[in-house]
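Reminder: ligand-aware prediction takes two inputs, not one.
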Amino acid sequence: MKTGLYDVDKCRAQFPSLTQEVGGYTAAFFDGPGGTQVPRRVIDAVVRYYTESNCNTHGLFKTSRETEEILDGARRAMADFMGCSAGEVAFGNNMTTLNYSLSRALGRTMKPGDEVVITDLDHEANRGPWLALEELGVVVRSVKVNLPDCTLDYKDFESKVNPRTRVVALGYASNAVGTINDVKWAADLAHSVGAVCVVDAVHSALHVTVDVNDIGCDFLLCSAYKFFGPHVGIMYGKRDAFDNLRTYKVKAQNEMPPYKIETGTLNHEGIAGVTEAVDFIAGLGEAFVEENLGVGIESDTGRCSCGCCCSEPPERSRRRDIVAGFEAIERHERPLLSTLMDGLDSVRGVTMYGLPATARRTPTVSFRLKGKAPAEIAEFLGDRGIFVWDGDFYATTLIERMGLAEQGGVVRVGIAPYNTAEEVDRLLHWVRKIAAE
Ligand SMILES: Cc1ncc(COP(=O)(O)O)c(C=O)c1O
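Here is what comes back for the chain with pyridoxal-5'-phosphate:
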C-alpha cells in the first residue's frame, strides 16, 4: 500500500549488512559518501547473474543472450535515473577510469594553448584526468573556492572561461563538505564559448535527482556503489557529443556510442546489480502517494508530469518513481542533517566546514575537534560502531586550500537514506564524550 510517509525501518530491513555489531555496538554506517551499503535485491541480482547467466556477449546461446539483455536493461535503468536515452549510457570500471578515457579522447582533438577549466572544490577524479592534458600543452585553470563556506567563486569561474576553453569540468556536489554547485549555470557558460561541460555526479547521485537535459551538460559521470549498487562506473554522453568523441579503442570494438568508450569486457555481474539499485530507489518513491508530490500521468497528454524526458510508458513510470524516491530521501535526510549540525555545533571545540543545514547542500558534514586528530576521532567512533571517514577523501585540493592537509584533514559524517535519528543521537553522544576527555 502507498503511504505518504518514508518508512526508514522498511528501508533498513532490505539491507542485510545493517545488523552487524562491532564490540557489542550495532554498527551505524555514516560512511556513505565513500560507498553505501547494498540492499538484498542488488546482492541477489549479482548471485543470480553468476548462477544463471554468466557469460560473455555476442554468443548465439542462452547465457550470452541473457547477458546482453541484462546489459541493455541496466542501460535503460540508468537512462531513467539520469533522464536520458539508453543509447547515451556507457559503463566502465569506475568514474575515475571513465573520466580518464573521456579526457584522453577529448584531448586528442586539442592543441597547445587550448584551455580546460576545473575547480578547487573537486575530487581529484575530476581534476587529475584534465591536468594530465598539460602534457599536450593544454592550459588547465582551476576555479577558486570561497572559504569558509566552501562554495565556488562564480566570479572567478566566469573570468576563467574564454574562447580558448574547450572543456569545463566540475562536480555536482562536493564529497568533502556537501556543497551543491550550480551545474546548469556552468553548462550554459561552457556552451557560450563552444566548450563541452563535464559533470561529476558521483557524490550528488545519492541525494539529488539527476536530470541531464535540465543541466544541459554534455557528459556526466557517476558510480553505482555510491547509490546502493556494485562497483560500476557510469557515463552519460549527450548523443552528438558522444558521436563526436574519438575514443581510444581496439579495432573490433563497436565504434558507436555508448560502446565506443567501453574497452574490453564489462563487469556484467555488477551491472546486473545496477538495475536493482535504480529499482530500489524507484521503490522508495513508490511509497509516496502521487498527490503528495504532485506527480503523475497527465490525462490530456498521457505524459508524466514530473518534468522528466521519458516518453515510453515503462520508463516513464520508473522515472517518475525515481524522482519521487529522491524527494522521499530528501525529506528523510533533511531533519537528520539539522539534528546532526545543531548537535555538533553545541559541542565545545567543534568546527564545522561548509554551508549551513538550511542551504542547498547534501547531508555530508565535515568537522574538526580541537586537540584531537581526525583519525583519532574516527577510530574512537569506529570502535563504538559509528563508521565515519577521516582525511581528505581525495578532495585533496580543497583540504589544502583549507590549510588542513598537514593536520589530518577533517572527520566526515555522511547521512544516507538508511540512517536514523537514533544513530545521529548515538554519534553525537560519542562526539561529546571524546570532546570531554
Ligand atoms: C565526488 C567524487 N568524484 C569522483 C569519485 C571517484 O569515483 P570512483 O571511485 O568511481 O572512481 C568519488 C569517490 O569517492 C567522489 O566522491
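The domain at 43-276 is CATH 3.40.640.10 (Aspartate Aminotransferase; domain 2). Residues 313-345 form the longest helix (33 residues). We will return to this case in the review session.
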